[in-house]
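Q: Given only this backbone (256 positions), what sequence would you predict?
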């Protein structure tokens, strides 16, 4: 479980996150949406230890990890799939996976854990691209590789920063499907998502960040029934809803 309590963080220029609190249960997906610059990436980076928390708590399965070095937080069970994928252009898929599956990341004791073989079974597209370099992969394949790399760290909490950014609708849908499978495997998922309608489709809860503060955090079931309050909060235009199809997510327009 991921528990963030009263978390504040920022940069030399000032505080960006203001007393953010979120609780994400194992096997569930918490989406975080918000306008550009709201602090979504800062939140993810602070949980991963890349940005130092100025106050508040970050707990992974009850263990307080704020203030630890990023590699220690990774060892505590946090996997990060960064915005932009950060795949090495000159390394092959096989080399990426071999690096990520370093010995200290042994399979979880008592469990099967994520192995390269298991990941390639889940992602056959990567299996077909093992000898290809990062720069030769499509955006979707790079995203799959970024997720595979994070999984090889045996995370219990997976942080995904806009994993569908720049992907075709078809590929984005496949990435979302994969995220759903990972949550069903018991992973705790924090998902930063630009497209509100996609967040509502896939997540169990959705939180809105506004100027670094959580101004909304509710089960997505509520937004599926009546998306108007959430859409209004993000100033998203929604198409008129025909009678009998209230809240159908396909009616959603794009986020700003
Ligand atoms: N490394 C940094 N140094 C200083 N300020 C930063 C840094 N990274 C982000 N910021 C600032 O922090 C604020 C929040 O940025 P952040 O990237 O977290 O927002 P975001 O919600 O993820 O935005 P986007 O949707 O555009 O990715 C912005 O004002 C941004 O300029």
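A: Predicted residues:
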């Amino acid at each position: 479980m991921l528990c963030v309590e009263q978390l504040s963080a920022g940069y030399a220029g000032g505080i960006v996150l203001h007393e953010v609190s979120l609780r994400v249960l194992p096997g569930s997906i918490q989406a975080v949406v918000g306008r550009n610059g709201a602090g979504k990436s800062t939140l993810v980076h602070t949980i991963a230890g890349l940005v130092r928390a100025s106050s508040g708590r970050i707990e992974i399965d009850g263990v307080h990890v704020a203030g630890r070095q990023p590699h220690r937080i990774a060892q505590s069970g946090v996997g990060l799939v960064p915005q932009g994928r950060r795949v090495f252009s000159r390394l092959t898929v096989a080399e990426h996976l071999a690096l990520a599956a370093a010995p200290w990341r042994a399979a979880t004791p008592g469990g099967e854990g994520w192995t390269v073989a298991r990941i390639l079974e889940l992602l056959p597209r990567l299996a077909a691209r093992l000898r290809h370099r990062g720069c030769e992969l499509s955006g979707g394949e790079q995203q799959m590789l970024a997720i595979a790399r994070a999984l090889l760290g045996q995370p219990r909490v997976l942080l995904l920063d806009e994993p569908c950014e720049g992907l075709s609708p078809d590929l984005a849908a496949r990435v979302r499907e994969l995220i759903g499978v990972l949550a069903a495997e018991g992973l705790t998922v924090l998902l930063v998502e630009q497209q509100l309608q996609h967040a509502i489709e896939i997540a169990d809860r959705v939180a809105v960040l506004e100027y670094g503060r959580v101004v909304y955090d509710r089960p997505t079931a509520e937004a599926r029934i009546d998306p108007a309050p959430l859409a209004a909060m993000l100033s998203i235009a929604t198409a008129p809803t025909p009678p009998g199809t209230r809240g159908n997510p396909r009616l959603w327009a794009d986020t700003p």
